[in-house]
TrEMBL record:
Lineage of origin: Archaea, Methanobacteriati, Methanobacteriota, Stenosarchaea group, Halobacteria
The keyword Signal is annotated on this UniProt entry: yes
Annotated organism of origin: Halorubrum hochstenium ATCC 700873
Domain of life: Archaea
The family this protein is said to belong to: Belongs to the bacterial solute-binding protein 9 family.
Pfam families, alphabetized: ZnuA (PF01297)
Iron found in the keyword field: no
GO annotation, biological process: metal ion transport
GO MF annotation list: metal ion binding
Database matches in SUPFAM superfamilies: Helical backbone' metal receptor (SSF53807)
Protein name: ABC transporter periplasmic protein
Keyword field: Signal, Transport
Annotated Gene3D superfamilies: Nitrogenase molybdenum iron protein domain
Length: 320
């Protein structure tokens, strides 16, 4: 475990925390800003954090770190296995559970017990970080966990956590709240998996996923398409949202077979593209550059031409 002054466990470098999921990696790197502590995202660019089978090198990276930041049991089986390895081999790596104390939503649908991503207890939705209010709890968990391995930097870590909660998460919460309240619509159709119910809970608008399971790789059944077609017709929907890291074909099919005119990008902050990494995007940038413009369009607050920065619509309407 790291030293109090921010030195790593082996005394050969700064204290290192490795994260199993992009969103919490981003929270953590903001929390350690201005300190010698380091944070690393274990998930490769372009991939989700739960539908992934890492190599033995990832487990070794966790073993060599001072702390492992994870999302709690049941969401990432590979992370659960890594934690079991640490415990079985009595390896001194501090565990930081970003989900500790967070109130999770029950799932609306009965899921296959073998499906990845069902949350602890099977039947709870793990995607809580979409709700900024719940995400604040994870920021506190991360700051407190890091302070345990680097107590000399506790004050800076806690100050950074408070700043991030106020300047980013609270701002996102307020801006999204205003956006949803402005809309006369109460249904958004997603050509995506069931990862967005915390928006529905936080903002009171129904988020209709095309795929009712929680796995981004879930297959689209004919009845899924039929139900989405009915929702689009009944709610006079012109625009739908599609997952950035999910298949495009279901969205294309809905555009071809319904009155919907186009699809736009949405993401549960579960991964990053190469250009996002190059531009140092985090939770805040994805919220405002991807999710908010799409929701403005789907909620009917703005036309595609009005949403997003210059050139956004050209890049993202019916994106490949």
């Amino acid at each position: 475990m790291g030293g109090g002054n921010g030195e790593g466990a082996n005394g050969d470098g700064p204290t290192l925390t490795v994260a199993s999921f992009f969103s919490f990696y981003d929270f953590a790197r903001n929390i350690v800003d201005g300190t010698p502590l380091q944070v690393e995202n274990l998930v490769p660019t372009g991939l989700h954090g739960h539908g992934w089978q890492p190599s033995a090198e990832i487990t070794q990276r966790i073993i060599e770190s001072d702390a492992f930041l994870h999302v709690g049991p049941g969401f990432q089986p590979w992370a659960d296995r890594a934690i079991q390895t640490l415990e079985d081999d009595n390896i001194d790596v501090h565990l930081i559970n970003a989900r500790e104390g967070v109130d999770l939503l029950p799932l609306a649908e009965t899921l296959d017990p073998e499906e990845e991503g069902v949350g602890e207890g099977q039947g709870l939705d793990p995607h809580f970080w979409l709700d900024p209010q719940r995400a604040k709890i994870s920021v506190d968990n991360i700051a407190e966990g890091m302070a345990e391995i680097a107590p000399d930097h506790e004050s800076a870590l806690m100050d950074n956590a408070e700043t991030y909660k106020a300047d980013v998460l609270e701002q996102v919460r307020q801006d999204f709240q205003a956006m949803f309240e402005e809309s006369d619509r109460d249904v958004v159709q997603l050509a995506a998996h069931n990862a967005f119910q915390y928006w529905a809970d936080a903002y009171g608008t129904e988020m209709r996923p095309l795929v009712t399971n929680l796995a981004a790789s879930g297959n689209v059944a004919p009845e899924d398409i039929t139900e989405a077609q009915q929702v689009i017709k009944e709610n006079d929907i012109s625009y739908i949202a599609n997952g950035v890291f999910e298949a495009r074909r279901p969205a294309v099919q809905l555009i071809e077979e319904t009155q919907a005119e186009a699809y736009f990008p949405v993401t549960p902050y579960a991964g990053v593209r190469e250009d996002w990494v190059e531009n140092n995007w985090g939770y805040k940038e994805v919220a405002y550059q991807i999710n908010k413009p799409t929701l403005e369009i789907c909620l009917g607050n703005k036309t595609p031409e009005e949403a997003g920065p210059d050139g956004w619509t050209d890049q993202w309407m019916n994106f490949e």
